[in-house]
Each structure stands twice: as C-alpha cells, then as structure tokens.
C-alpha cells in the first residue's frame, strides 16, 4: 500500500519505506500468522462476531440445518476400487475427523452396506495427541504386497503441508519403522513394495519460491530420506517438481513432471539408466500417456513444423491422440479427438480398460461421448470410433471417473443440478461403446424443490462478450426487484462452474425464498482455454466487468435490486468479490469474501503466492504492478467512499492463501469506520474448516450475514 493511501485511510502518517512494500504497510504485522499480537486481534474480531452475528436463534437454526446436511448418514459414500475392496472416507456427527473404511461392491449396492473401519482419525488423534486431518491415501497395487500396503497422508489442522506414513491394510495399523515422510508440502508415488518416488522438503534450498518441492528422489526401504537417490532437480525458480510410476500392466513407466509455472509444464520419460526423454509438446499443453497412447490437450494453438515444412495448426482447446512409440520415433500424425467450437470446451477425458470417455461443455451443459481407439493390428492408419454416451441425463452436471482403468470398462457417473439431488451410477461400456447405467445411490432431498425453476441467461459485458449465468428462483417470482439474491462467481485458473445440488445452500437460502445465481465469467474454463486467457494478467478487469454485467442484468430483469443483491466468493473468488466491493460498491447490498487474495502487491511473497504469477502477474515488476494495482482491493480502498457491508472469513491454518490478506483488509476498513464483520477459524487450511461442525459454523455466518443485510 502506498504511503498516501495509508495516510488517507487512517489519518496517521505512514512510516518511511526503503522500497519494501511491507515497510509501508500499517497492517503488515497481521501477516505474522501465529504472532501474539495478530492472534489477539483475531480473537477480538471473532468474539465480536460471536456476540452479534452468531448469537441469534436464527443463526443457531441455520447452523443446525447445515450440520444436519453435512452429518447426514444418508449422503452418498463415494468409493474408490482398490483390489477387491471399495474404500471410502466418511465424516458425520460420530466421526468428527472421519474414518477410512472399506466394503465390497455387492455390499455397497445395498441400502445399508457393511463397512470395515480401516483407520479412525479421531481415535488416532486421541492416541497421538494430534489434530490430524485426512489428506488421502495411495495404495500399492503391484507385487507381493499388492493391496496390503498404503501410504496415508495426514495434515495438522487441515494445512496443505502434510506427513506421509506407511500403513498395513492387513493388520490395520501403521508399519513400525515403515516409510515416513516428515511434514512438508509434497508427496510420494509407489514404485514397488520397497521403493517410492518422493518429492518433499529435503532441507535448505530444496523448495521452490512457491513453497513446493524442487527435488524428486527414489527412496528405498530402510534408507534415510536424506540419502535417497536424486532423479531430478528443478531450477531454483520452478514451481513444483514431482516423479511418479505408471503401474499399468505391460506399460510400466517412470515419469518426471516439471511445473515451471501455471500453464508451463514439462513431462519427461525416466529411463532405467536415469536418462530423461522430454515429451516434446508445447509447455502450455497438458500431456499424458496411457498404455500405448499419448493424449495432448492444447491451451494454445499449435502449428507443427519440421525442416522446411509447416504442418497443420491445431486449435487451442483441442484434444489430440497419437501412439506414444510413434511419437518418440518422430511421427506427428495426430488424430483430433475433440475440436472446440465457439460454444464448447473439453472438461474431461477418462480412460477405461478399452475406451476413452470425453466430456464436453456446450454453453455450460455437459455432453459425453465414448471414443474407442483402433487396435494395434490396425496400425497408424486406424481411426477412433465414436459412440454417444447415452447413459447420461439430458440436463445438469455429469461427471465420470474410471472404476478400474486397467481391468474394467466401467465408470462412476455422478449427475446433479441445483434442484435435483445427486445420483451415483455404475455405467458399463460395451465393446461397441454403448453405455448402460445402473443407479447405485442417490442423495437425500434436503429441501423441497417444488415451486422453484432453473434458468440460463446471458448478459452483455462491457466489450459485448456474451456471459452465461444460471438462476435458481421461485417460479412465481414477482420480478419487482425485491427478491434477496445471492450471486456467486470464481473466474480463474480455467475452472468451470456448473450446476450442482447443495443441501446446505438449499436449506439456508433457496428454500427460504432466496434467488441463487452463478455467473460463468471469463477466467474460468466454461469455453475452454481462450475463455480463461481472456482474463489473464492485464486483462483481469474483463472478469470483473463480466460479473458486474451479470449483476446489472439481474436488476434489469426485475429479479432483484442493488440493495437486495449479495455476492459470495472464495480464494480467487475472494479476489473477485474484493474487487466488486472496491470497484462496484453501488451494485451490491452485501459482500462475502472468503479465504481471499486482496493485497496484490504482497501476494507473491506470501506462502504459495509466487505460483500464481502466471495468472495475475509479477508485482515486483514495475510494468506489471501498473496493471496489478488496478485489481488489488487493498490498494483500491478509499476511506471516503461508501461500501456495502462485508464479511471476511479465513483460516489461521491456510498455508496456501495467507490469512494476512483478509486480516489486513478488514483492519484497514474497520479503521475507516466501515461495516465489517470478520471471522477466522483456527483450523481448516484453504478449505476454511477441518470438521463438519466448523464448516457449518462458517457457512451459517455467511448466510446469517446475507439475510440480515438483504432481506
């Protein structure tokens, strides 16, 4: 923040600075995550919020309703096939931190499956005096100990940094003297029962500026981690280095992944002699090899060149396929599996044992297709067969994932929309590509959808761009501008927002007469990489113009009015709502800003912030800071301007987006006498909460805040 801005906001001269932005920042002390003064300030703000927003009967009822959804024993237990078992991680009222459990497919098909508890995290915490949060597990799938050993990842308080510990799936206990990766950001990949790839903090100089691993090693059983064999060392300015083993039978391979920055990746085949062979595709592309096939998803146009010849140009957003051995031999005879149109974007490609299921959005509606690769006998000239994925419903969000991509032609299919409870089906894909669905589970109906409708509209942004958005509203809406309306958005990192059922949202907002709106603004992935790139760096304002255009369109349609329109967003969406607060305050009656980025001068120096410079820009470069400051809410704040009421929430244990962003912005606005509510959870990581009870508390705060300000 500039010295002039601090003096204007606080009436107190700013301290002298010698080029350090933090030195000129009156509230830099709040960046000391667990400092006594900073935590004292947090406790005071939390006490104020508990004494006001959280003190009402309505808050208690809202929280209880949300917790009833989160703790429901009738939710769909999502499973992953591991050998003959189907594993699930589960939380409810009795298992606050959760249990890792398993069953059989026959039992899972029943209304009341029989579960065997593999690991009880609450009991583990009690035994070890810790506050572990489940981060997942990786099971060994080959060799004499196949399906009998796992690496379990556990995080203290929900932070991104975690530990990895070897677990015996037969004895249901951690392996005494087994593999143990100390707490750090990073991970592992099984090679065999006695060997792992490990990428983690190996000591000073081994982590990137973003706080992620810079080295990948091969770690053998009984070996000190420090003595593990180095397989790859990234450059000092890289973002993330990893190594992994592909255990596909008959196609076992080792790989090194080098992430230089977001949208700038290199993939290397690691030979037995340690030699690295780069998969020579554009760094902006996403490349993956499964069995004999290389798939390449393009983020930018790619023109093939060789010698004096110029080959075809493939469009950004295309999915290409070629036999991997042919590619390594120099062939570039790609087949285009998916080609984008102005209204479509590839959002997923899922392998089964014999097929590839591609998932495409068309004006933010899913369309799936089964592609069957040519057999080895057909040679390079064979083409992929195409079959419609008829098992999918006509409307709503549809996602698929492989049950076992080595052995089965089955996928899990999850279907949902804003008013229809989520269903889980097991889909069998035949040799001809035809799909047949068996519905296994359905989520309970947590609120009454009768009398509500879902619509899709399009708003015109400042430059004329057509911006889609979904509306969930009462069918008998008066269109007189009086409806309390909640507008949600994200607009970053090529992430698409599609319709999804939420019992929490339904109970707390929709069933009480509120209108819910989701804006599919630029920066997301709804129309592929070009939609995302349209709001990168100096073009970031396009995303905010899109969101403002949706807000104005809602008012123009008579759905709501500025005084009745609230907005909500988290992480990059918190940066979005922070900019709506500071740049478009006249459009909104209340603003919820969750785990946000807000100080864009300091963001790249805080935790993982350096990894996002490909998205936002480098604030230490004067030319880039010139545009970054135009969407830095902390620097756009004007003490003389009128702002709508705002709620900031974050987590002390968020080691991805620094809690200092929310703390400093709240302190700055409070000092200027603005209507600010603040809440910081002591656990939870970037998700904001480590337990269902914590999640219910934070969600209830947001809904109570919105109803008080908008109704």
UniProtKB/TrEMBL annotation:
Annotated Low complexity bias: 8-20
Pfam families: Peptidase_S9 (PF00326), Peptidase_S9_N (PF02897)
Gene Ontology CC entries for this record: cytosol
Keyword set, alphabetical order: Hydrolase, Protease, Serine protease
Lineage: Bacteria, Bacillati, Actinomycetota, Actinomycetes, Micrococcales
GO term, biological process aspect, one: proteolysis
Stretches for region Disordered: 1-20
Residue ranges occupied by any Peptidase S9A N-terminal domain in the UniProt entry: 22-424
Entry keyword Magnesium: no
Top-level enzyme category: hydrolase
EC numbers on record: 3.4.21.26
Domain of life: Bacteria
Species per Swiss-Prot/TrEMBL record: Beutenbergia cavernae (strain ATCC BAA-8 / DSM 12333 / CCUG 43141 / JCM 11478 / NBRC 16432 / NCIMB 13614 / HKI 0122)
Name by which UniProt lists this protein: Prolyl oligopeptidase
InterPro entries linked: AB_hydrolase_fold, Pept_S9A_N, Peptidase_S9_cat, Peptidase_S9A, Prolyl_oligopep/macrocyclase
GO molecular function: oligopeptidase activity; serine-type endopeptidase activity
Domain Peptidase S9 prolyl oligopeptidase catalytic: from-to ranges: 509-710
């Amino acid at each position: 923040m500039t010295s002039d801005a601090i003096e204007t906001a606080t009436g107190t001269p700013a301290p002298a600075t010698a080029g350090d932005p933090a030195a000129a920042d009156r509230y830099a002390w709040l960046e000391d995550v667990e400092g006594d003064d900073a935590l004292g300030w947090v406790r005071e703000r939390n006490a104020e919020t508990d004494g006001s927003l959280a003190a009402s009967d309505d808050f208690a009822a809202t929280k209880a309703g949300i917790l009833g959804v989160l703790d429901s024993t009738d939710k769909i237990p999502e499973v992953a096939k591991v050998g003959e078992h189907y594993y699930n991680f589960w939380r409810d009222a009795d298992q606050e931190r959760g249990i890792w459990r398993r069953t059989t497919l026959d039992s899972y098909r029943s209304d009341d499956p029989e579960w065997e508890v593999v690991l009880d995290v609450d009991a583990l915490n009690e035994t070890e005096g810790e506050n572990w949060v489940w981060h997942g597990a990786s099971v060994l799938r080959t060799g004499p100990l196949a399906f009998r050993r796992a690496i379990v990842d556990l995080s203290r308080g929900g932070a991104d940094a975690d530990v990895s510990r070897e677990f015996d799936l037969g004895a249901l206990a951690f392996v005494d003297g087994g593999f143990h990766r100390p707490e750090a950001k990073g991970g592992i990949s099984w090679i065999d029962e006695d060997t792992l790839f490990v990428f983690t903090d190996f000591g000073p100089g081994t982590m990137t500026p973003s706080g992620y691993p810079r080295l990948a090693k091969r770690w053998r059983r009984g070996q000190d981690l420090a003595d593990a064999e180095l397989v790859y060392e990234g450059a000092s300015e890289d973002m993330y280095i990893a190594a992994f083993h592909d255990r596909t039978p008959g196609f076992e391979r080792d790989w090194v992944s080098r992430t230089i920055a977001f949208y700038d990746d290199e993939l290397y085949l690691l030979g037995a002699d340690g030699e690295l062979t780069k998969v020579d595709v554009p760094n902006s592309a996403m490349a993956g090899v499964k069995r004999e096939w290389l798939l390449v998803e393009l983020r930018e146009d790619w023109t093939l060149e060789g010698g004096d010849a110029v080959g075809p140009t493939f469009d950004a957003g295309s999915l290409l396929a070629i036999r991997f051995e042919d590619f390594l031999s120099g062939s570039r005879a790609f087949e285009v599996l998916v080609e984008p149109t102005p209204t479509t974007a590839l959002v997923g490609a899922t392998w089964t044992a014999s097929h590839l299921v591609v998932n495409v959005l068309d004006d933010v509606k899913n369309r799936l297709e089964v592609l069957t690769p040519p057999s080895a006998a057909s040679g390079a000239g064979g083409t992929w067969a195409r079959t419609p994925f008829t098992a999918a419903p006509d409307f709503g969000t549809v996602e698929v994932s492989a049950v076992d991509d080595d052995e089965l032609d089955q996928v899990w299919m999850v279907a949902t929309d804003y008013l229809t409870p989520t269903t889980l089906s097991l889909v069998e894909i035949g040799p001809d590509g035809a799909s047949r669905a068996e519905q296994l589970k359905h989520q309970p109906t947590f609120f009454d959808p009768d009398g509500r409708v879902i619509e899709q509209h399009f708003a015109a942004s400042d430059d004329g761009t057509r911006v889609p958005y979904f509306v969930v509203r009462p069918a008998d809406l008066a269109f007189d501008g009086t409806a309390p309306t909640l507008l949600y958005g994200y607009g970053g990192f090529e992430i698409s927002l599609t319709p999804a059922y939420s019992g929490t949202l339904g109970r707390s907002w929709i069933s009480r007469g509120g209108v819910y709106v989701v804006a599919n603004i630029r920066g997301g992935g709804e129309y592929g990489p070009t939609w995302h790139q349209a709001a990168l760096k100096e073009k970031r304002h396009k995303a905010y113009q899109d969101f403002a255009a949706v807000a104005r369109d809602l008012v123009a349609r008579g759905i709501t009015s500025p005084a009745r329109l609230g907005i909500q967003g988290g992480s990059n969406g918190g940066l979005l709502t922070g900019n709506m607060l500071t740049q478009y305050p006249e459009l909104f009656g209340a603003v919820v800003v969750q785990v946000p980025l807000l100080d864009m001068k300091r963001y790249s120096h805080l935790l993982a912030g350096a990894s996002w410079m490909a998205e936002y820009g480098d604030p230490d470069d004067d030319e880039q800071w010139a545009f970054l400051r135009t969407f830095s809410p902390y620097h756009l704040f004007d003490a003389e301007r009128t702002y709508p009421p705002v709620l900031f929430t974050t987590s002390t244990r968020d080691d991805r987006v620094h809690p200092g962003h929310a703390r400093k912005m709240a302190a700055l606005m409070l000092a200027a006498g603005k209507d600010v509510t603040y809440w910081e959870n002591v656990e939870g990581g970037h998700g904001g909460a480590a337990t269902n009870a914590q999640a219910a508390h934070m969600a209830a705060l947001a809904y109570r805040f919105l109803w008080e300000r908008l109704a």
